[in-house]
C-alpha cells in the first residue's frame, strides 16, 4: 500500500511538472530491460568529453574573450597614428539657385589629407586596465585547465562505476536464476508433501527480492550511462532531442 501511494504521488507530481491532467496515465518508456551497453574505451571517452563538454566549451569561449579584451587594453597604451581625409564642395554665388548649382556640380572642391599622431600622457589608468585584463585572462585559462581535469576524473569515475554496475547486474540476474530453480524445487517438494507452504512463500519472497535487485541495478546502469553522456555533451543527441540555434 505504501509503494502504491508513492507511485500515485510521483505520477501526479510529474503531471504537474508537465502541465497535464492529474489523472493522466503516465508510464515509463524505458522498461529497464535489455542487454548492458558496451562501455567505451577510457581514453577515447575522456577525449570525447574534453572536446564536447558544454561547460568546457563555454569556459573556452570565456578564455578567448578575455584574451581579446587583454589585447585591446594593451593596445590602448600604445601611441596611435591616424589618417584623416576630408572633401568639401564650395559655392560662391550670391543667389541660392546658382549657389546650390555650384555645390552640386563641384566646381570649387576643397580636399585635405593629414596624419594625426597621439601619445598617452598618463599611462597609469590604461596600465591598470591592461594588468586587470591580463589577470582575468590568466584566471580564465586556469579555470579552463581546472575544469578539463575535473571532467577527465569525472568520466573515469563514471566508467569505473558503470563497470562495477555491469558486474553487479550480472550477479543479480544469476541470483534470479538460482531463485527460480530453488522455488521450482521447493514447489515440487511441497506437492510431494515434503515441504510446507511457509517454505514455498519464503522462497517466493527471496525470488521477488532478487527481481527487485535486478531492476535496481538496471536503473543504476541507465542512470550512470546518462551521466556519462551528459559529461560527454551527447545526452540530448542520444535521446533524439535537437536544439535549433537561433
Summed up:
The protein is mainly alpha-helical.
Walk me through what this model shows.
The protein has 246 residues and is mainly α. Helices cover 67% and strands 9% of the residues. The chain has helices at residues 2-17, 42-52, 54-75, 96-105, 124-191, 197-231, 235-238; strands at 80-90, 108-118. Strands 1-2 form a two-stranded antiparallel sheet. 11% of the residues are buried. The model has no long low-confidence stretch (mean pLDDT 83).
Keywords:
single chain; 246 residues; mainly alpha; two-stranded antiparallel sheet
Question: So how many helices?
Answer: 7
Structural class: mainly alpha
* Tally of strands: 2
Biggest sheet details: 2 strands, antiparallel
Shape: elongated
Give the strand order of the largest sheet, numbering strands 1, 2, ... along the chain. 1-2
N- to C-terminal separation?
Answer: 49 Å
* Beta-strand share of residues: 5-15%
Unreliable spans are: none
Produce the secondary structure layout.
Blueprint: H1 2-17, H2 42-52, H3 54-75, E1 80-90, H4 96-105, E2 108-118, H5 124-191, H6 197-231, H7 235-238
Antiparallel strand pairs: 1-2
Amino acid at each position: 500500500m505504501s509503494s502504491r501511494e508513492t507511485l500515485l504521488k510521483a505520477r501526479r507530481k510529474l503531471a504537474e511538472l508537465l502541465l497535464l491532467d492529474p489523472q493522466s496515465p503516465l508510464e515509463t518508456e524505458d522498461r529497464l530491460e535489455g542487454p548492458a551497453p558496451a562501455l567505451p574505451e577510457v581514453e577515447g571517452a575522456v577525449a570525447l568529453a574534453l572536446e564536447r563538454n558544454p561547460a568546457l566549451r563555454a569556459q573556452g569561449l570565456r578564455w578567448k574573450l578575455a584574451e581579446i579584451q587583454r589585447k585591446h587594453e594593451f593596445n590602448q597604451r600604445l601611441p596611435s597614428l591616424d589618417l584623416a581625409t576630408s572633401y568639401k564642395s564650395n559655392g560662391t554665388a550670391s543667389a541660392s539657385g546658382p549657389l546650390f548649382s555650384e555645390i552640386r556640380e563641384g566646381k570649387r572642391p576643397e580636399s585635405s589629407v593629414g596624419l594625426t599622431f597621439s601619445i598617452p600622457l598618463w599611462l597609469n589608468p590604461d596600465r591598470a586596465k591592461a594588468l586587470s585584463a591580463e589577470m582575468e585572462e590568466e584566471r580564465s585559462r586556469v579555470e579552463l585547465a581546472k575544469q578539463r581535469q575535473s571532467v577527465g576524473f569525472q568520466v573515469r569515475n563514471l566508467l569505473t562505476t558503470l563497470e562495477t554496475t555491469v558486474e553487479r547486474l550480472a550477479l543479480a540476474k544469476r541470483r534470479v536464476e538460482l531463485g527460480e530453480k530453488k522455488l521450482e524445487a521447493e514447489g515440487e517438494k511441497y506437492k510431494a508433501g515434503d515441504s510446507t507452504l511457509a517454505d514455498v512463500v519464503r522462497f517466493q519472497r527471496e525470488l521477488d527480492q532478487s527481481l527487485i535487485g535486478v531492476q535496481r541495478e538496471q536503473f543504476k546502469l541507465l542512470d550512470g550511462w546518462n551521466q556519462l553522456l551528459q559529461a560527454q555533451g551527447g545526452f540530448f543527441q542520444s535521446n533524439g532531442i535537437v536544439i535549433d540555434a537561433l
